[in-house]
Amino acid sequence: NPATEAARLLTTHITTVTDRYRGRILSYDVVNETVMEDSTLAQTAISRAIGGTEALVDLAFQTARAQLPDAQLVYNDYMSWEPGNEKHRAGVLKLLEGFRARGVPVDALGIQSHIRIDTYDPSTGTGPRQEREWRKFLDEVVAMNYDILITEFDVNDQALPGDISARDRSVADYAKAYFEVMLDYPQLKDVLAWGMCDSYSWLQEFKPLRTDGLAKRACPYSADFAPKPLHSKLAAALQTASAR
Known about the structure:
Elements (H helix, E strand, L loop, with lengths): L1 H19 L6 E6 L12 H6 L2 H15 L4 E6 L8 H17 L5 E4 L2 E3 L14 H13 L3 E10 L7 H19 L5 E6 L35 H12 L4
Helix pairs in contact: 1-3, 6-7
């Protein structure tokens, strides 16, 4: 039976991981990136066999909860505050609403926070963002009693001018503005960077590359492990955030 075999594959994976790391998993990204950019849900051979993507993700979280009754269970996705993410954000909200309506044990939304400067505005020194719309999105998420996490933070500087000092300053200012919004929410208690040092950042290979051929400066530390303005701005934002 295809549905039975699909369920077995999924539950075996989750139970194998959770059995291996039992006692060490405090927070678990159970499902990652199942919402497409057009707001629909991704389809795979397993989801089709099991009866749909909602059935698949529901079973994943139910299995994880049975295995880890005290862990934080997270749905993780890459929606962000740049223009062009409106449909994706709407799809994530719809998925989260469905979890609550169906009683699925999901505790938090992981927000990858691969923020990016796709176009450069010389008047502001950074890139465009939809702060009002992003706050509305976050308001709706926490109103459903979800915690939030920053799970994969970095800054794609592909559209910034090449000058390193100016570029680092713009990256730091853009990230500071983002963190000031995010840290307004006491439901945010964890921040994870997706790489600490520029030379090891996945963005060095992620297209589009910079048109000037220079390395991207996406992380808190430079290629020689020196702290950059991004590091100091993040530290300041965290130090001034309200207790939680």
